[in-house]
Amino acid sequence: MAAVLGLVLSTGAARLIRSQLFGVDAADLLTFVTVPMGLAAVALLACYLPARRAAGVDPVIALRSE
């Protein structure tokens, strides 16, 4: 739901700043697909790396240290 709302708002914002877009159409499909995919990839990587590190810790040792 949030992604759909973001796409609708970004389309409206792109039309507002149409004069500042150089070489990109206001409703360029490639841009509207690539940017969210890139952000999703960065978010998944930001979640995966700490989770992978935490999975290597023995839970008993972690609980005893606190």
Could you characterize the architecture of this molecule?
The chain is an all-alpha fold and 66 residues long. The protein contains 3 helices and no strands.
Secondary structure topology:
Blueprint: H1 2-16, H2 29-55, H3 59-64
Short summary of the structure?
The chain is an all-alpha fold. It has helices at residues 2-16, 29-55, 59-64.
Oligomer: single chain
Count the E strands.
Answer: 0
Largest sheet: none
Structural class per helix/strand content?
Answer: mainly alpha
N/C terminus separation: 40 Å
User: What share of the residues does DSSP label as strand, in percent?
Assistant: under 5%
List keywords for this structure.
single chain; 66 residues; mainly alpha; 3 helices; 0% strand; rod-shaped
